[in-house]
Amino acid sequence: MKKQLKPSIVFSSMTVFDLMRDQLFMAFYMINDVIAGKVSLDRVNEFLKETEMLDAYTGEDQTAFLPKLEADDPRIGFNDVTFAWSIDADGTLTPSKRKHLLRIDGELLFKRNALNLIVGPTGSGKTSILMALLGEMHYLPIGPGSWFNLPRKDGIAYAAQESWVQNETIKENILFGSPYDEERYRKVLHQCSLERDLELFEAGDLTEVGEKGLTLSGGQKARVTLARAIYSPAEIILLDDVLAALDVHTAKWIVDKCLGGDLVRNRTVLLVTHNISLVRSLAQFAVSIGTDGCIAVHGSVNEVIGADEAISKVLEEDKEGVEMAAEEVDKPTAPQADGKLIVAEEIEEGHVSWNAGGSHPGLFFASFLGGLLACDLVTTFQTWYLGYWASQYETHDPSDVPVPYYLGIYAALLFIAVAFYMFGFTVYILGVIRASRLLHQKLVQSVLGTTLRWLDTTPASRIITRCTQDIRAIDGPLKDHMKWLTEISVSMSVKLGAVVLMTPIFLIPGMIVGAIGGWIGQIYMAAQMSVKREMSNAKAPVVGHFGAAIAGLTSIRAYSAEQAFIKESMERINRYTRAARVFYNLNRWVCVRIDTISGMFAAGLAAYLVYFKSNSPSNVGFSLNMATWFSSMILWWIRHFNEFEVQGNNVLKLPRALTYWLISLERIQGYINIEQEKRSTPEGEPPAYWPASGSLVVKNLSARYSQTGPKVLHDISFEIKPGERVGIVGRTGSGKSSLTLALLRCIFTEGSVFYDGLKTSDLNLDALRSKVTIIPQIPELLSGSLRHNLDPFDQYDDATLNDALRAAGLFALQADMDEGNITLDTGIASGGGNLSVGQRQILALARAIVRGSKLLILDEATSAIDHKTDTAIQMSLRHELGRDTTVITIAHRLHTIMDADKIMVLDAGRIAEFDSPANLLKIENGFLRSLVEESGDKQYLYEMVEGKHSTEHH
């Protein structure tokens, strides 16, 4: 049934449809959030379905027939068991064709209240024994009598091979939740040889160790980890190769004062070690693991030595004591007196700084705003035109109203509005994509190009937050809220202008409502900005603590400290959620107040138009429609303005336009402006032939880790000829690793360094560092294939890569251990997590051989490798590298450097001795001579030097 088009019907219907449109828009917009929430819940559900720990192999059907051990069973050991790391058969998690990485046939019981040694070659499974006892490996019973046991009633303490410390003070790392006992604490510091190290720090034991212990050298981290185990009241102590990170003097001290001290007496200690010469007198039981992952022999130390030919040979030829040192970035970073290393994240106050963002082209905003303004003007006129069309039925006979004519104009207006909106929206999308890419590029370049000092003082969790959370805010909520804010601002201006045009008297009430709304919005936004900043800065500690807990999960579970970490994590989460709760409550606060004044404005306009009857019905309907829309948008304008200012930073460069700065972009802009290393210049490019040799000349070199920090190197001068092999030794903190960082210009330096005749300070950093290869104590490996780790840029063929692996000793190690399936296509887990530390170092050596640099620096590169493998690697380095390749080796394993051409002894950042080994051994009371005299294999070391000396003179 046809009805006449009346203004009352038109505008009441349009008002209802406008309100419904907003609600439908929000409903469909929330669908994305619902889907994202569903995906997250599914992921959490899948995670919760996984088995606790690594017990997937041992189901109820298997354990039902196994012997049940009493909870207070005092035995420590195994009986007829096998353990594996993963069920993965393709090698991505366990690159070995041995299905069972650890197999124990028969009974193996460790001796209680005594020191037990676990020895064996690299990759044999020494660490696996400790992990199996701790329940960190899959348990596969092989018979009805299978069992393993580690009584936890009296506590477990564990020190990992890769020392794990929290981003707390040294004292808190040692206490690790245990009650503070002054006498016991001081005794632990003394026995673990930490007293001298604490004197290097202004804040002593209140010094923050930094993320991953960056303040400490490798040896210091190992001793802090050891001190934590010794201080704990646990009756059973598991130590995984802690002596490998100590120099000879410190190792002898630890063995005599700590392992042989009163704090360890009557406690059960399981010590994994490569060398037993210094600890054999203390040990009462030993286990030797073969290359096949099976127990070769166990019993008293003398029985094991007599039965295991390999161990006997090591003791005869290479027993220098506790030799290896997993040094170091031995940097006394001069913490401030309060011990703080990590710089607290700044929390700005008030509104976002005007310098937080950058300018954007005016053409972009002119096009975007022009499209929106034209669209709103057309749609507003379209609404008025619909009322005008309806009014024709009141002044004309319905049959005289040309419907096609009015409908055609209405459709044309609709088409024009859509075209303007599409133009503005397209310009906006293209602009924000370009801006986002540029911003992300600048952020990544800035972080990758910053100084080592900045990276030391900035937690990784904070950097991750900038590159993920803040970038997401700019890519997602920022662009959305900016668009919505602009649209609403333009629409409100046009709608209010239409109301004033039809009813001029409401200009003043409209301005009053706008002023009140702005005042409430200012209060709301000031509070929200502060709360949002608190939320943003409270989130990084949550992520950082979680990351640290994951990294030290084995230690946390060993100490049964799960509840303490859960409590700390919940406290950090609570700090975040407290701010979040205030954030959402403020939304409700502003909603009530804005809705109230908006309703009063619309009601006042309606009352005025109805009672004074100053306009035609069509104009009244049009005004009420515009007023209703204007009132409903005040709240959304404030919300989007707040979200826009909270989510990021941007500038609208229009004449007399407001400049909106947002927190996320403010924080990102801060990272874009961080201190940078020297940029590359055309003048800094070296000649194409450089370097032709590995000659190195250093003159008056001094170095420090910050511009205001103390010097860690003092006026060092020396010369190394091409092809020479130079060993560097020194106590912890003497400056060995600082010297390598200074050569690579990673820290602030003074003086001159000439590499193959060119002054390194005049070279571009990328050119210098690409021509020097350094192998750290814990090398970094990438997730991917072995080929990708050796040759990430695909520059070499397979033959070259395999030759490098062979030269580094990997194939020989595989042959000994019957591990034939490690190939160039073998998968490597992130960080090399599926390899032992020794295997990672072998791959790092192979990578260095592939690069073929003229200068090779080994910073404790063989610290976690057994003596046999280390000897093979040293032979490979002597024969596989070019004659003009200079090798600088930092080591505490003396046989690694005793056949070097020269040895440099550093002490407190100065060169104490620098000459050939033969000449240094002639110096009475010399440092090198004292090291050799104190080692367990003095005669063998002297023979090495004499053999090299005689060879050079024939």
TrEMBL record:
Membrane disposition: Multi-pass membrane protein
Subcellular compartments: Membrane
Domain (ABC transmembrane type-1): residue spans on this chain: 369-645
Matches recorded under SUPFAM superfamilies: ABC transporter transmembrane region (SSF90123), P-loop containing nucleoside triphosphate hydrolases (SSF52540)
GO cellular component: membrane
Transmembrane intervals: 363-385, 405-433, 496-520, 540-560, 590-612, 618-638
SMART domains to which the protein is assigned, alphabetical: AAA
PANTHER family according to UniProt: ATP-BINDING CASSETTE SUB-FAMILY C, ATP-BINDING CASSETTE TRANSPORTER ABC4
UniProt protein name: P-loop containing nucleoside triphosphate hydrolase protein
